[in-house]
Amino acid sequence: MNSILDILIIGAGPIGLACGIEAQKNGLDYLIVEKGALVNSLYHYPLFMTFFSTADRLEIGNIPFMCLAPKPGRQEALEYYRSVARNKELNINLYEKVEEVNKQNDGIFSVVTSKKIYRAKNVIVATGFYDIPIYMNVPGEDLPKVHHYYKEAHPYVGQKVLIIGANNSAVDAALEIWRKGGEPTMLIRGSEIGERVKYWVKPDIENRIKEGSVKAYFKSQLLEIKEDAIVLKDADGNIVTLENDFVLAMTGYRPNFDMLKKFGIHLNEADDFVPSYNDDTMETNVDGLFLAGVVCGGMNTHKWFIENSRVHAEKILKRILEKKG
Fold first, then answer.
1. Structure pTM?
2. CA 257 to CA 249: how far, in whole Å?
């Protein structure tokens, strides 16, 4: 592509799509580039996940999100965002990974992908955080039986599964695996189930733990993962070895900080690696380079959601149009 884009958007998640819609609405020449499938992070969510938000709070582009249930699930969300992309006829290149973003002497960005080189006046990074797990750094974490993503319960039927974590992903996995015939054991660093767990799920997991259907070790630490066992330190300081077939490390995820640094964005390492940007315009320390969505929070991945970061698209486009004159 030899022409210069007004905006190149990295990431075709809900917020990346929202940015594309705003660019389109304002008559700007834009392109959305996504390394995976459309709304790639949502696609990799557990098959039967239910959102905390109601459907109306996940809407973008003034297109209604029709949902029969009080809260939509993964399948409904995928259908909705597919419909948005199709309805708006958004310019999206899928399965094309952005490798470099460099600002040239003429003020134009050179964006190198796995397929092409683009030139753009502005770049929006809307890449989310779901691609890089937070690793535990314990012996045996690299064994094939250790997974950092949970898709569905079926593979764990009849298996002894250690689930590490106390938030939504860990709780959902424990309950589903138990109901499908697996044997889940939760290992939790704190003294209780996470306060951010969905309010209609929290009593369920607490009751299952209380009755012994789901075993739980609170205030405990994982020491080692072996081929057929795990070793932990319990709340009393005892070393406990448990038979084990699989480990689900639901320890959270983080944005691609190396990529942001490579693009020239400053990160505040003393403040959870929060990137430098203007709250009013979403523009980073690099003129013309913007952030949108969850990526803005650094390690605080629970700060931004679809529902409260949809406004980033409007802020960014307002700034770009002001500079355009």
1. 0.92
2. 21
